[in-house]
Amino acid sequence: MEHIRHLGIVGLGLLGSSILRAVKSNYPHIHLHLFDGSRQVCHEVEALGLAPRCAGSLAELHECDLVVVCVPTGAVATVVIALAEGMKRGAVLTDVGSAKQMVINEVGDRLPAHVSFVPGHPMAGGEQSGPGAGREDLFAGKSCLLIPLATTPTSAIERVEGFWRALGAVTCRVDARQHDHIAALTSHLPHLIAFSLMETFGDQLAINPQTGSFIGRSFFEQIRLASSDVTVWTSIFEDNTAALLSQTEHFIEVLNQWCAILQERPVELHGKISHSSVLANRLLGRVV
Amino acid sequence: MEHIRHLGIVGLGLLGSSILRAVKSNYPHIHLHLFDGSRQVCHEVEALGLAPRCAGSLAELHECDLVVVCVPTGAVATVVIALAEGMKRGAVLTDVGSAKQMVINEVGDRLPAHVSFVPGHPMAGGEQSGPGAGREDLFAGKSCLLIPLATTPTSAIERVEGFWRALGAVTCRVDARQHDHIAALTSHLPHLIAFSLMETFGDQLAINPQTGSFIGRSFFEQIRLASSDVTVWTSIFEDNTAALLSQTEHFIEVLNQWCAILQERPVELHGKISHSSVLANRLLGRVV
């Protein structure tokens, strides 16, 4: 955090307010400059005692060394471009969006030379939204992916890396195309699965009300993501369509193979389940 | 528990040992008769201090008022038939398997008249297995579905209901065909999804090792079920194939609709996500 005396946070929902909480607690000497487009969110932040006041406009963030943009992915480019012009020389902008290639394309060469933009994506969140849902330790031990462009100055990348590490995250630099493809698998597809499972359950519930007696922990766990913020996820699905489609199609193929095995070659079930179980136990850190 | 002085438990894994723990703690006057086909499991139960000894054969359970059969679904019918002949008059047998129609067909009219069988299915479990994974409170507040046949005496059904209620579960009577169809959706399909997502992740990991940096809480949560016991789940998939296939095919259809909307009608995304989100929030008990 050594290069950051003035920190800006734009968007004070789950992620933005978690950053706010973490910085307030652990780096009280840093001056915070907060902005949210929604007056109601600003009032909530003030009512929660997280900040005395929010800025009235983006222009008020001009003296920040780093601004973290925490708005839905579809709005990131607009905010970054709007902010950049007024920022002081050497300022760095970053974001927390789940889809990167589109933002990079939209920002393109539209930033002034005295400001840098380092797209980012902390692998942290939750299905709850709004400033009240934020948690000081949300980023502790989580991966934060950074997607710098070839033209991004090293000092700017390092400032953003230093920021996330100070919040306890483990940073990792990746390529935008790769990022979008893998995030589609590990984050966007799980949400699409939860939405689809919820829909399938709704169809069944309409036929048979007893369906409600059949819900165990495993089912609740697998539909939890379906209760996520609608605006945020509409934006992510719109902004990472190609990669999400490709991963969903691959997943459907895998499901079709399961159907074929169930129907025609049940003798292969044990091996197939075992393969996934070994992988899952390894990933979950258990002895296999 | 008033009609139960001698309780038998066959199979001392996660579910059997959870029943054992709950009964020992809360109903110490009940005589427990335990059996497991695996010597190693018996040794584990004894080493954990859960019981001084396990029975050497099923025949030793003859004086039980109720026997709960906690073996993989594929073995339930065999155990029930093997047990029944030697049981005292009026004894009741039940099980905890996830698939019911097949067990009911297999048991058929092969039980002697002096014994009743009430198939059951507590909606409780976990991805951990073995006697060490059991928990005294595993059934507290959970649904336990009972699937009595038209010929089952009311007194037998009530004995099994009383047993589960004493362990804190909420009982509910359902029809076997309905049970298998809904359990396929709310329990078996979530497992199949977890296995498939794990497999899809494995495919991606083989192409790009950076995939490992992209794992957030939501992904871990959605693949946890993939680490479940291989034998148990092979048996469930084999024993409830038709219903699981039908639910999986419906789920694939829903996924295909998502793909079509992503590709051709993104304007519908918000409404579609919103529909699932409302349902999920309602189910998870949150204010929408």
Automatic annotation (TrEMBL), chains A, B:
Residues 5-288 form the Prephenate/arogenate dehydrogenase domain. It comes from Pseudomonas fluorescens. One of its GO terms (molecular function) is prephenate dehydrogenase (NADP+) activity. This is Prephenate dehydrogenase/arogenate dehydrogenase family protein. One of its GO terms (biological process) is tyrosine biosynthetic process. The keyword Ligase does not apply. It holds the Pfam family PDH_C. Keywords: Oxidoreductase. It comes from the Bacteria. The keyword Oxidoreductase applies.
